[in-house]
């Protein structure tokens, strides 16, 4: 029962190849199958998106226009933010009241009468 080293090595390599090759082939086949399924799913989603776009043609164009308007408004806003501040006016115009101010003595008398009306009976009125 004397096997040479070369024969032993060859038999060991054949046994390892018999164990590894089927597993490697199964792994590669599963990867290809997963890739094919992913491609089919992408094609299905593209077809569904195309159907939605054709069914909602006007709606999609409206949404695209609205998005473009919003982007343009955002750009205008950003440009306005980058602009330097405008100088403030050098003079301020005060609003002049249209009716003359009442006499301070008349206002004080009106306040006193209100206080006297609201005071409980028996309280001193000042």
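Sequence proposed for the structure above (126 residues):
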């Amino acid at each position: 029962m004397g096997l040479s080293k070369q024969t032993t090595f060859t038999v060991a390599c054949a046994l390892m190849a018999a164990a590894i090759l089927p597993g490697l082939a199964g792994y590669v086949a599963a990867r290809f199958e997963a890739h094919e399924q992913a491609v089919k799913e992408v094609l299905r989603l593209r077809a569904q998106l195309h159907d939605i776009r054709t069914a909602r043609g006007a709606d999609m164009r409206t949404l695209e226009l609205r998005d473009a308007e919003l982007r343009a408004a955002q750009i205008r806003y950003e440009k306005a933010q980058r602009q330097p501040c405008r100088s403030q006016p050098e003079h301020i115009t005060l609003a002049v009241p249209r009716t003359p101010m009442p006499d301070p003595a008349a206002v004080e008398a009106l306040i006193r009468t209100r206080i006297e009306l609201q005071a409980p009976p028996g309280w001193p009125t000042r």
